[in-house]
């Protein structure tokens, strides 16, 4: 068929994003440990704020997410004029690619980086160049070696999904210092709230000190995945470019208000972070036996590596049979022997440990 609308070249080569599985066997009550959602729900203040806007669905939201930007600026000590909010951080990643990548341009990411980066790059007509990692951790030298004259964006998830590994503030600084000044460094700090490493930096200092660094954040991992709220902090010239092309009402009102309340509810954020650190440590220790290896994680999930891909498959099915849904990282990622397990409710953590420690792998 030649006479029908055709997508731009490359669009149909994009492999669609595969979300974490959300259903167990028919009739079974499932616990979802496949999408890195909050095990403690959302901040009660956020829920209250979300409900409060429900009476006036006929009115457009305020287009610049001013209330949310003000809350973020106050809580994080930032310049609110340099914040852009998005319909999830995916929205912002698309906007960045659209702004800075054209046909034939390149973006660089590390080998096991977040799977949305290829989608946004290819959707903008660009090509992703992968830099090899060492032991599931991004390598600054390899990332810099992958830069060419066509490179426009460098994506770094820190900590990274699905590996959970991170780069220290020093290493990220070295990465920025080695980049040509016209390459935009996108620091995706989606899991920042969960980091406990003392040598980590979320990226604010680099954004403020450089003209080519933006920090992207999300509320999705902090209890508001359904509200779809991401935000970005960047230099004024990047913010200006993004504001020209984003949807004029790209963030829904309920989401804006819920996120503003969640941002200010730092007691809830702290509680979630403490809960996560406790059970991340516990589960990591439990699963470092029975021929399993846990890659040290700074996020709200762990990556477990099995001796064989078939072991990962067996483990996945055994967990699923008990209603515990985890994420198979899979061969498309090049980690066929890996499962990603979100830190979830205490009973689920104990059940996962019990099942995997007692599994007999052939
Ligand atoms: C979950 C995640 C996001 C967040 O996506 P949203 O669109 O905000 O839900 C961004 N980056 C990484 C690395 C993630 O794992």
From TrEMBL:
Top-level EC class as recorded in UniProt: transferase
Biological pathway: Amino-acid biosynthesis; L-histidine biosynthesis; L-histidine from 5-phospho-alpha-D-ribose 1-diphosphate: step 7/9
Native source species: Devosia algicola
Name of the gene encoding the protein in the UniProt record: hisC
Cofactors (names): pyridoxal 5'-phosphate
Every Aminotransferase class I/classII large domain range: 29-354
Complex and partners: Homodimer.
The keyword Hydrolase appears for this protein: no
Domain of life where this protein originates: Bacteria
Keywords: Amino-acid biosynthesis, Aminotransferase, Histidine biosynthesis, Pyridoxal phosphate, Transferase
Protein name: Histidinol-phosphate aminotransferase
Gene3D superfamilies: Aspartate Aminotransferase, domain 1, Type I PLP-dependent aspartate aminotransferase-like (Major domain)
């Amino acid at each position: 068929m030649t006479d029908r609308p055709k997508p731009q070249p490359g669009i149909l080569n994009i492999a669609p994003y595969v979300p974490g599985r959300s259903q167990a066997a028919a009739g079974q009550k499932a616990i979802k440990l496949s999408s890195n959602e909050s095990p403690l729900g959302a901040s009660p203040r956020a829920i209250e704020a979300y409900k409060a806007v429900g009476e006036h669905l006929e009115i457009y939201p305020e287009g610049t997410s001013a209330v949310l930007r003000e809350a973020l600026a106050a809580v994080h000590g930032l310049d609110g004029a340099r914040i852009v909010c998005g319909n999830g951080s995916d929205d912002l990643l698309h906007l960045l690619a659209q702004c800075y990548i054209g046909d034939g341009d390149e973006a660089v990411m590390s080998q096991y980086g977040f799977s949305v980066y290829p989608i946004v790059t290819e959707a903008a007509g660009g090509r992703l160049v992968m830099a090899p990692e060492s032991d599931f951790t991004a390598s600054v030298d390899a990332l810099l070696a992958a830069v060419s004259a066509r490179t426009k964006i460098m994506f770094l998830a820190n900590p990274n999904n699905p590996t959970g590994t991170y780069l220290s503030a020093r290493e990220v600084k070295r990465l920025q210092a080695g980049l040509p000044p016209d390459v935009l460094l996108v620091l995706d700090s989606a899991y920042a709230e969960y980091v406990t490493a003392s040598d980590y930096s979320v990226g604010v200092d680099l954004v403020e000190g450089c003209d080519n660094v933006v920090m992207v954040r999300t509320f999705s991992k902090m209890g508001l995945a359904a509200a779809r709220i991401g935000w970005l902090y960047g230099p004024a010239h990047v913010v200006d470019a993004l504001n020209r092309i984003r949807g004029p009402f790209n963030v829904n009102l309920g989401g804006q208000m819920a996120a503003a309340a969640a941002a200010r509810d730092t007691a809830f954020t702290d509680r979630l972070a403490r809960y996560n650190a406790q059970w991340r440590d516990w589960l990591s220790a439990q699963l470092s036996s029975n021929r399993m290896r846990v890659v040290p994680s700074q996020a709200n999930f762990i990556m477990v590596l099995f001796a064989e891909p078939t072991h990962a498959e067996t483990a996945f099915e055994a967990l699923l049979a008990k209603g515990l849904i985890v994420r198979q990282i899979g061969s498309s990622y090049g980690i066929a022997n890996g499962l990603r397990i979100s830190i979830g409710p205490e009973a689920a953590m104990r059940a996962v440990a019990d099942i995997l420690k007692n599994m007999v792998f052939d």
